[in-house]
UniProtKB/TrEMBL annotation:
Keywords linked to the UniProt accession: DNA-binding, Transcription, Transcription regulation
SUPFAM superfamilies xref list: GAF domain-like, Winged helix' DNA-binding domain
Protein name: IclR family transcriptional regulator
Gene3D superfamilies: 3.30.450.40, Winged helix-like DNA-binding domain superfamily/Winged helix DNA-binding domain
Domain of life: Bacteria
InterPro entries: GAF-like_dom_sf, HTH_MetabolicPath_Reg, Tscrpt_reg_IclR_C, Tscrpt_reg_IclR_N, WH-like_DNA-bd_sf, WH_DNA-bd_sf
């Protein structure tokens, strides 16, 4: 178990690396592992294609196995045929960046981003970024769609006690409206609207969201985007078999 935890810790560090990867000494410092231990772990990870080393720079980066797993995940969730076309359609309609997020524990992962060719101003949330579930429209839309007990447990872990009732009240409003909105929670001057997505069993699988700059946002534009994201969430859910 310790070896697995160390390997996943290294994977996390490399997933955030810039400039082509990380040296073994940097990995050792950031992980707190001795150089000899780090060397043994990296060699084992190389055999499994979890990491690879650039022959010129000697920097380590994530290996191809993660891309293969990601493609299998997309395939298993009917991504190509049932989800991506709807994301592309929504982006064309609203001329904004569109995102697909999925819950993972007390966080959500941005799985996909479709940018609009008609809008050069974009909010660049990188793929794979993990965001606490109480922050942002997409995450609140997912929380509001979860079973009450599950949502309450997550809120209890993430939201300060004196703010939990107000947060639950906000989730109730989201359930009633069928969508969530967020303004400047993560990045000042940006907003988003989102709707939950369910599969054929009625299980929450994620959320579709629209991200946009809010400096010239009008009530009419916000209402339009909110309605469009609700429609997209409903279409994707139907494509996945939801009633």
């Amino acid at each position: 178990m310790q070896a697995l935890e160390r390997a996943m810790s290294i994977t996390g560090l490399l997933s955030e690396a810039e400039n082509g990867g990380m040296s073994i000494s940097d990995l050792s410092k950031k992980s707190g592992l001795a150089l000899g231990t780090m060397h043994r772990i990296l060699k084992g990870m190389e055999k499994q294609r979890m990491v690879e080393q650039d022959p010129q720079t000697k920097l380590y980066r994530l290996g191809p196995i993660w891309l293969e797993y990601g493609l299998r995940l997309y395939d298993s969730m009917d991504y190509i045929t049932k989800i991506r076309p709807e994301l592309e359609r929504l982006s064309r309609e609203v001329k904004e960046s569109v995102y697909l997020s999925r819950p993972s524990g007390h966080e959500a992962i941005v799985m996909e981003r479709i940018d609009s060719d008609d809008n050069p101003i974009r909010i660049n949330d990188p793929l794979g970024i993990r965001i606490p579930l109480h922050i942002g429209a997409a995450n609140k839309a997912m929380l509001a769609d979860m079973p009450p007990g599950e949502a309450a447990e997550i809120v209890g872990q993430l939201v300060p006690r004196d703010k939990q009732q107000a947060f639950h009240d906000e989730l109730a409003v989201i359930r009633q409206a069928g969508y969530a909105e967020s303004h400047g929670e993560r990045t000042p001057g940006t907003s988003s609207v989102a709707a939950a997505v369910r599969d054929g069993l009625g299980t929450l699988v994620g959320a579709v969201s629209i991200g946009f700059i809010s400096y010239d946002l009008t009530d009419e534009r916000l209402a339009y985007l909110s309605e469009k994201v609700k429609e997209a969430g409903a279409r994707i859910s139907r494509n996945l078999g939801a009633g």
